[in-house]
Amino acid sequence: MSNRHQRLVVEHIRDRFPELPRSTRRCFLRHSAFAAALLAVPGAFAEELATTPQMTEGPFYPDRLPLDTDNDLLILNDAITPAVGQITHVAGRLRSRTGQPVRGAFVEIWQCDNNGSYLHSDSGNRDRYDSNFQGYGRCLTDAAGRYYFRTIKPVPYPGRTPHIHFAVSLHGRRVLTTQLFVEGHPQNATDGLLRRITDPVQRALIIRPFQPLPDSKLDELTVDFDLILGLTPDETQLDRLEGGIARPQSRRG
Ligand SMILES: [Fe+2]
Fold this sequence. Notes:
Strands 1, 4, 8, 9 and 10 form a five-stranded mixed beta sheet that branches. This protein has one domain (about 5-30, about 50-235): Aromatic compound dioxygenase (Protocatechuate 3,4-Dioxygenase, subunit A), CATH 2.60.130.10. The chain has helices at about 5-15, 35-40, 190-195, 200-205, 235, and strands spanning about 85-95, 105-110, 135-140, 145-150, 165-170, 175-180, 205-210, 210, 220-225, 225-230. A hairpin with an 8-residue loop joins β8 and β9. By secondary structure, the chain is of the alpha/beta class. The chain is globular. The relative contact order is 0.22. Mean pLDDT is about 85; it is low at about 20-45. It binds fe (ii) ion (FE2).
């Protein structure tokens, strides 16, 4: 990305998330006493939100993590060549079902590259894997529950409509496993896993518009994807941060 272009993206993201940290390449957790005080106000959010539906982790959580696990999946470490694919900025807020932001949670994503190949030894098309694509990333939510990733627009692979896998760990426990889908993609109608989610409100939470980034010369896209946990504020807030990323479901038991 050129400097000017990077500035445009940052400005656009800041527009929608005015308090987002300056760097889009790193995730920060802000230790703000003010934000913590706001979170503690009882009854601040009366209405219950619909919760993000749980979906399977699937078989392709990376069996070997990449050397770089930051929230920019387009660039591996300090490489110059970016991954192939349509650049997509995914951002959102993690909240409890009563609306309180959930800070200090790890959001993980993984997805196939532009050829439909995962960072997994059992993935199809493995020999054509785009060596510039990180394939997996993680981001710690800030005091307002926000996360951000730069990645590529997901593509279909045999048997599945395009999607990005999401997992959320809070205090070392996996509290949400789900998938993000591209609104309007024709294969959504025939995807076996997506068809199991029948509630229209829950579908609207995970099938999101991928919208053009204004003035982008690279045809970049942006997606707002809020994640709503089926937990109460008591279950999401701790006085201190503890625990890390939960083991993937495929490696438990
Ligand atoms: Fe998948």
